[in-house]
Amino acid sequence: MANGDIVFYGTAAIGLPILRELQQRRRLALIVTQPDARGGRNRQVITSPVKRFAEENNVSVIQPASLRETGISEIIGRGQPLVAVVVAYGQFIPRALYSLPRFKTVNVHFSLLPAYRGAAPVQRAIENGEEHSGITIFEISGRMDAGDIWAQKEAPILPDDTCAAYQQRLGELAAPFLLDTLEGIVAGRIEKRPQDDAAATLAPPVKKSEGLADWNLPARRLADKLRAFTPWPGLYCRDGSRLIKIINARAGGSTHQASSGTILSLDARVLQVACGQGTVLEIVAIRPEGKKEMSPWQYSLGNRFPARLA
Length: 310
Hints:
Elements lengths: L5 E5 L5 H9 L3 E5 L4 E3 L4 E3 L2 H8 L4 E2 L9 H6 L5 E5 L7 H4 L6 E5 L11 H7 L4 E8 L9 E8 L6 H25 L31 H10 L6 E5 L2 E10 L11 E4 L4 E4 L5 E9 L7 H5 L10
Helix pairs in contact: 1-6, 5-7
């Protein structure tokens, strides 16, 4: 492929390793990313990691509020790109655009499709206690994550992996894997294959409310949720009106016959909480609302835990 023949759609930081790989090989023609947004305590302007990459590396970038805006297809089609790549962009790409490049548009999806189609494949895989997931490179079609598959790569989910850690590793793995796959597509060395729709599962977006600990769940399930929802929204509980974020916890080996949420014991190492099916969650580190990270024992020196957490 010649220089400047790839259009990149992306917004989230997970796409940065792929962008760096593309930039090193001098193949980026244009970056398309989401518009700046306002957020934080002072409602300051927040730009996406992908936009910052474009500005730092002098790559042309556009931020359309809608890809159906007049003139977008002319901008993206300028230079007759060979292929477009989508990585965590966050907006539906219409047929008029994904069919534009000579070799169409490929999506780098962080699951082994047809499993976990949707916006949160990494979070849902970890939440469900999966030991393996991976990367799928497929051709975008009119249905969500249902296009023909060009290539897949499996990657183990380690017992201590959080969403952030696993995404970082997938991003690094995806960079050379994508470039090799693109070379194969353009050279005609690989063939795409259809997905088995009957085997498809969904990975809907994570809601903030999902971070509230449900003590009726088994401890293993809560520990998986903590890993899946780190860094956002995290796993948290309430001590009265105060919100306590759980930073580090694990499923313990002991059992109980208490009501779910009951505090079973507290010492300098862990806070043991009764969970569903007689299991126990051992909480090692917390961050109370407005405070720094600390152990449950340190928290108890100035605060009294209730008999049962909500």
